[in-house]
Structure formats: structure tokens, C-alpha cells
Amino acid sequence: MICNKDVGGGKAFWTAVMASRIVLPNGAEAERMTYDPTGWWLLNGDDEYWVYTAEEIGRVVCTPGSRMIAYPVGEPYAICDKRKYEYELENDVIVIKERADRFKSASPWKERTLSSDNISHPPHYADGWSNGAEVIDLTEHLSFCAGNVVKYVCRAGRKDPGKHLEDLKKARWYIDREIERVKGD
Q1: Average pLDDT in the 172-181 region?
Q2: Residue 119 reports pLDDT greater than 50
Q3: Among candidates 165, 86, 153, which has minimal Cα distance to 124?
Q4: Are 153 and 171 in contact (CB under 8 A)?
Q5: Is the CB of residue 174 less than 8 Å from the CB of residue 150?
Q6: Which residues pair with 80 in a beta bridge?
Q7: 31 band by pLDDT with thresholds 50, 70 and 90
Q8: CA-CA distance, 2 to 47, in Å (whole number)?
Q9: How far apart are CA 142 and CA 148, in angstroms?
Q10: Contact 49, 25 (CB under 8 A)
Q11: Bridge partner list, 19
């Protein structure tokens, strides 16, 4: 885990999605409640997705350079383990479904199946992390140099095993630049 999920009564998360409806992993729409929710929130945490009705989120605080914090006023409608589930946003509907196996074998650099997406979810950045996060979930909240440090450390030995040391040296180069940038601030 990257940092604690609970922050002063709030929930720390990387990204959020809002939609008018939600479809749960079994394919059924959320059960009718005593009221019709005005919308749904999916909070993308470290290792779980938290689903809330719009009415259950009191406020959301966004601070540049750090994770967002949601302050719910009620319990989540559902909590989904990111190792087992993924979500898509389709026509203002959040669809939560079981993760598809992206590889024919456990080795990330072996032949990929047709479901692999080397553009938006390259396997050397997306697959194999125990908390289900993708590298972009971390780096999009960092400075350019700090993001590249994380990127090169995470892909070292995964994208191309023959360039493991080269990727680590690139990470060191970016961390040295980041240190100089911070010293200058």
C-alpha cells in the first residue's frame, strides 16, 4: 500500500468517476433503495474501488500534488478488490466487471493475447502489482521528473529484461534532476 486509506475521517484516493448509473460485477444494476440516487461515485483507491451514491459523499478535497480526499457521510454501497475487478465508463454508466486475464502465461514479456492494450494499459506498467494500481495512477500526481523516477523503477526488468540496469540508471538521472529542482524552489 502506498499510503493510508483513511485520512482524518476521509478516504484518500487517486481518481474518481461519476455517472448516473452503475452496473455491478454480476451484471445487475444497483438494487433499488429507499430513494433514487442522483448519481454514483467510484473512488479509485490503492487496492479497492469504493462505490457511493452521490448523496453519501459530503465533499471532495483536491490538493495539487497529492491524492484527493473524499469525506463520505455514509457507508459505501460496494467495495471491490482491484485485483479481481476493473471498471469502464460507458455512456454515463459505471460498469464494474471481473478482470480479464491479459496474458497466456505468467511472464509479462511473453506473447500477449488479443485483449492486451499496449497503448493505454501496457502490461509492464499495468499488470502484476499486488494492489491493482497502474503506474499512471501514481505518476499523474507527481512532477515530470518524479513521475519518471517511478515509471523507470516500476518497469525495470519488466518491459525489457535486458535493460533492467539501464532503466534504473534512467531513474537515478531523473531523481538527481528532481533533487536539483526541489533545492531551487
Answers
A1: 93
A2: yes
A3: 153
A4: yes
A5: no
A6: 49
A7: low
A8: 9
A9: 9
A10: no
A11: 40
Span 41-100, pLDDT tens digits: 898 887 888 888 888 888 888 877 777 888 888 888 888 888 888 888 888 899 998 887
The model's confidence at residue 113, banded by pLDDT at 50, 70 and 90, is: very low
- Cell numbers at residue 185, please? 524552489
DSSP code for 116: -
Which residues lie across from 18 on neighbouring strands?
41
For 78-105, give one letter per residue: b (16+ CB within 10 A) or e: bebebeebbbeeeeeebbbbeeeebbee
Domain boundaries, the chain: 6-98, 123-184
3-state secondary structure of 163: helix
CA 177-146-181 angle, 5° bins: 35
Question: Residue 173: its pLDDT value, please?
Answer: 95
Non-local (6+) Cβ contacts of 144 within 8 A are: none
pLDDT at 175: 94
Burial class (CB in 10 A: 0-12, 13-18, 19+), 50: buried
- Give the mean pLDDT of the chain: 76
